[in-house]
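Q: what sequence does this backbone want?
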């Protein structure tokens, strides 16, 4: 009983109603999907290539008819597993010269890490969609911290329609970024959970894998009988 009460309190404190089928559902009724954008080494491009990227990106932003949110996540690069892998190769290598070179490289990387703050930067674009007339005053992260203790309930049939409209926006963003030479990836449910976990627990999440059951969090699906013959499941 006490355990169930603790779980309910945790659910109420979550800044979103659900993460379901690759979509974040906030408690204010906003639906969002997240794109991870792979960076390009702009400095190594020629002047013509740089100008082309800038022009295409500018054209992409000007063509949007809806808002997006650009988020950068920066954390210190963890090379522990990489160095362990190199150390294991030394034991397997028969050639003494190659073993020596690998050890020299390991020492170089360790020294570089000790004197330089090497950061791993990831870039994300949040694409929101709100089916109601009411509009949020902030982006998804501002919306997430609204902390309204109400779990939004959406019939599955309606949810699928909303996701279809949201996916059209995602495709528009992907197409625009592709024209600027940027590749993207739609985050699935597990990746979104990992992103939020790393955001709220930067120290604990280093090198840690998130284990999830199924592809939902804060959501359940059940059969309901809606009004007007809108029978179907309900995602909440």
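A:
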């Amino acid at each position: 009983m006490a355990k169930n009460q603790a779980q309910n309190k945790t659910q109420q404190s979550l800044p979103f109603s659900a993460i379901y089928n690759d979509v974040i559902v906030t408690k204010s009724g906003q639906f969002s999907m997240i794109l991870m954008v792979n960076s390009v080494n702009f400095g190594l491009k020629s002047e013509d290539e740089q100008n082309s990227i800038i022009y295409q990106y500018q054209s992409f932003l000007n063509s949007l008819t809806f808002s997006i949110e650009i988020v950068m996540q920066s954390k210190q690069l963890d090379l522990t597993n990489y160095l362990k892998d190199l150390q294991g190769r030394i034991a397997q290598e028969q050639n003494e010269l190659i073993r020596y070179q690998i050890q020299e490289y390991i020492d170089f990387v360790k020294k570089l890490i000790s004197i330089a703050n090497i950061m791993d930067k990831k870039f994300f674009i949040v694409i929101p969609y709100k089916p109601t007339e009411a509009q949020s005053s902030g982006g998804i992260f501002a919306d997430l911290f609204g902390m309204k203790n109400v779990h939004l309930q959406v019939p599955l049939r309606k949810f699928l329609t909303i996701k279809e409209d949201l996916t059209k926006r995602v495709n528009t963003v992907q197409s625009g970024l592709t024209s600027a030479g940027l590749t993207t990836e739609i985050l699935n449910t597990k990746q979104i959970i990992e992103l939020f976990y790393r955001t709220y627990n930067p120290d604990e999440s280093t090198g840690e894998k998130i284990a999830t059951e199924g592809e939902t969090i804060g959501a359940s699906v059940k059969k309901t009988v809606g009004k007007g013959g809108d029978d179907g499941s309900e995602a909440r």
